# Entry
Amino acid sequence: MMNPILPELTLSSLDLDRLELLLRSLPASDPGRLALEPELDRAAVLEPAAVPDNVVTMNSTIRLRLLKSGEEPCLTLVYPKDLDHSGQKVSVLAPVGSAVLGLKEGDRIHWPIPDGDIQQIQVIQVLYQPERSGHLHR
# Structure
């Protein structure tokens, strides 16, 4: 299968600092760490106040479109400690969590799903972003 072109990623310096601390606490072989590290390495890093308001940052609530099914779930991207069983939050260490971090509205990614298939996902809307709401040091 052809490797799709990866979209550009943007991270806030605050998110990067916190995520690097989180990764250092995990074993080198942890699947979440293995998925997230390359994403952090390729991202452009901005001060929180400079992050565009259409970018998925930590604690953002986003509406996604699963292009195969047309479903449009809303999810909040959280640190593992903030995950609950509501089904409305996704950990940044989950495959889809690390995949959407740093994307902007309109970006598409190819995401492997448990049955071995590839799902194409699009970020439709950033419904809430802490930086846009002035919560720069959450």
